[in-house]
Amino acid sequence: MISCADLPLASLWNGVRPSRSRLIEAWFAHFGRRCLFCDQEMLKEGRRRNARPDRPTLDHIDALSLGGTDTLENIQVICSRCNSLKAGAEHAILRRFGRAA
Questions:
Q1: Lowest-confidence range among 37-41, 85-89, 97-101?
Q2: Over the stretch 5-57, which tens digit does the pLDDT of each residue have?
Q3: How many helices, marked H, and strands, marked E, lie in the chain?
Q4: N or C: which end of the chain has fewer CB within 10 A?
Q5: Do residues 100 and 73 make contact, with C-beta atoms less than 8 angstroms apart?
Q6: Would you list the DSSP string of 53-100?
């Protein structure tokens, strides 16, 4: 599985996680604009966030709520639609095992 840790981020890193927009720009430059899940082309995000399904989002590969970490090794870029579907599935897992309200 690929993650943001696979990006050539030496110029962005400086010991601090790069900003969301810099991570997405680096991801597009290195891996292209296709969502890893649905292969839809993601459009570059404008200044205002919206609910467009083709908007790129940072996604935790292993959800924080399920014990994942907030590190580059656990972050990927997928479209907002796939991120929403993945979040819904993770919430169902949490509910099933009694960890969510």
A1: 97-101
A2: 777 655 555 666 778 888 888 888 888 999 988 899 998 764 455 556 688 98
A3: 3, 2
A4: C
A5: no
A6: TT-EEEEESS-GGGT--SSGGGEEEEEHHHHHHHHHHHHHHHHHTT--
- Dihedral (C-alpha) 55, 73, 16, 10: value to the nearest 10 degrees? -90
Please list, in sequence order, all residues whose beta carbon lies within 8 angstroms of the beta carbon of residue 30, skipping any fewer than 6 positions away. 6, 7, 8
The torsion angles phi and psi of 63, rounded to 5 degrees, stand at: -55, 145
**Do the beta carbons of residue 42 and residue 35 sit within 8 Å?**
yes
First to last CA, the chain: 31
CA distance 96 to 3: 28
Q: Flag whether the pTM goes above 0.85.
A: no
